[in-house]
Amino acid sequence: MLLKKKENLSLRANNMIEDIKKVGVIGAGTMGIGIAEVAASHNQQVYLYDLDFEFANDAKSTLAKRLQSRVNRNKISPERRQSIVDNVFVIADLNKISDCQLVIEAIIENLEVKQKLFKKLQGICHPDVLFASNTSSISVTAIAAALDKPENMIGLHFFNPAPVMKLVEVIAGLKSSKTNLDKGLQLCKHWDKTAVLAQSSPGFIVNRVARPFYGEALKMLQERLFTPETMDALITSAGFRMGPFTLMDLIGIDINYSVSQTVFASMYHDPRYRPSLIQAEMVAANLLGKKTGEGFYKYDGTDKAKVVFESEQEPAKHISVCKDSTQLDLLTTQLKNNNYFVIDEHKGGVSIIIDDCAILLSNGQTCLERSTNVVQKHMAQIDLTLNFSDCEIIHIAFDRKCPAYLRNKVVGTFQKIGKNVLICDDVPALIVMRTVCMLINEAADAVENCVCSAIDVDMAMRKGVNYPIGLIDWADRIGYHHVIETLENLHHWFGDDRYRVSPWLRKRC
Ligand SMILES: NC(=O)c1ccc[n+]([C@@H]2O[C@H](COP(=O)([O-])OP(=O)(O)OC[C@H]3O[C@@H](n4cnc5c(N)ncnc54)[C@H](O)[C@@H]3O)[C@@H](O)[C@H]2O)c1
Predict the structure, then answer these.
(1) Is the Cβ–Cβ distance between 436 and 216 less than 8 Å?
(2) Which of 109, 125, 236, 386 could form a disulfide with 129 if both were Cys (CB 3.0 to 4.6 A apart)?
(3) Contact predicate 49/25, CB 8 Å
(4) Among residues 41, 87, 136, 276, which one is catalytic?
(5) Is this structure's pTM higher than 0.85?
(6) 464: closest CA among 435, 449, 443?
(7) 207 assigned to active site
(8) 110 CA distance to ligand 1 centroid (A)?
(9) Contacts of 268 (CB under 8 A, 6+ apart)
(10) Residue 169 known to be catalytic
């Protein structure tokens, strides 16, 4: 019975999509031509309109050339290329989209201009047309307010390049109808995209949740704790595809700064989204990243400064690892599996003990603060990584009084199991733990505030910005208590409300 109901539902959804045979795409820039390709590749006729007709024609020619190079590389057949190209009609007269069942707007990011366009479109199109905006930062509710039937409008937020990126955020404006949101979700499925549903709100899912990836890195740079090279190396070693500084240089410092400013203003100046003064200065100096030849790095052919790891040291022969499970389990297993070490086992929460040095996963306190809770005379904290058995770098902070011979023994011990070791000052939460806890907090807060579901926030960050694992999933692995403890310790250390813990995390404990 239930199965039959489900079948009927999906049949109805499929029918809805089958009805969408003609798609209007307004704006033939970076996103518009990409969206046109997506629809045209799925047997929909695309009517492509741009204020600049010649520009739209050129965009179609560029698409045809790009597809030809795919034919040349045997990625698609010549027939497939031809059918995609033939499905795109560049139009000079906007009235030609009158019988489109779906119209997607990808014009400049300006509310008044977008509203003016949709007002015009509602006079041309069928009253039940589905309108979609590809806006990345404007409220879909606000754009839809220009329409007599705001329920006809949804957001379809594609990522660049649209034909390649799997994710589409389907955005619900306050008045978007349930039927139209369902249509949006089914359309994405038809286009082989992964759809996530988000309420219209600043930054939607990805551009909101990713803010701390840049924000914390910039704050650590402002505090002169680490260099961009070190932070990028640690973040990539922890499992991310690209470090924050390399990524900002690629996106463009001006673009990244402007998104930060928009989200900050839209969130009524919540300190969590505070833009960085470093970026403001870089924009003023025209150091915009790769496109201007210099950003955090130089792009003039000179090599990036290399991260210098600790020189080779003698490992400890005897080490003691915790009998019970700890957050450094994968590291202790690696140590245990190395025949060189004589292993003792101890009870209690300290993951590894080398001589009189307790080694723990960082929790947002400094070693100096935390050392009062351990019986060993000295202590070290290790930075987070997604998988301690795969990671290449161990990032570690010692208490200030830890003698050099003991530090060297700890360093040598991790080198013995194939790790590069990087020692840093005794700062709270180091690099990856600080960044990931802030990302988790942001993801949790998006769920807490009903922007999206926990499943969708994880899907969005994996498919939209290639995070190695969903952030809620990551919180599960670290342990909610540990994430909360780290954020509380950072909050205490900095006295800054940006580190306040999302209630959603507390509810998980
Ligand atoms: N570029 C990205 O990475 C990206 C990613 C996701 C979403 N977006 C959003 O997509 C939209 C388009 O961005 P883009 O990067 O493709 O911009 P773009 O500047 O490359 O292209 C915009 C095109 O719209 C045309 N245009 C401007 N006003 C018009 C009007 N009134 N009628 C018809 N055409 C008009 C312009 O001539 C131009 O060709 C924006 O809302 C942007 O926020 C961009």
Answers:
(1) no
(2) 125
(3) yes
(4) 136
(5) yes
(6) 443
(7) yes
(8) 10
(9) none
(10) yes
CB 107 within 8 A of CB 115: no
Span 416-472, pLDDT tens digits? 999 999 999 999 999 999 999 999 999 999 999 999 999 999 999 999 999 999 999
pLDDT above 80 for 374 = yes
Q: Whole-angstrom Cα distance, residue 237 to residue 232? A: 8
Domains of the chain: 2-200 (3.40.50.720), 209-292 (1.10.1040.50), 318-424 (3.30.750.190), 432-507 (1.10.1040.50)
Residue type (1 letter), 257: Y
Per the listing, tokens 């969590």 go with 272
Contacts of 456 (CB under 8 A, 6+ apart): 196, 197, 198, 205
With contact defined as beta carbons under 8 Å apart, do 421 and 394 qualify? yes
Residues 433, 68: Cα–Cα separation, whole Å: 46
Helices and strands: H and E segment counts in the chain: 21, 15
Please state the φ and ψ torsions of residue 61, each to the nearest 5 degrees.
-60, -40
- What is the chain's Cα-based Rg? 26
Catalytic (active site) residue 98: no
Nearest CA to ligand 1 atom 11: 106
Q: Which residue has the tokens 């292993």?
A: 343
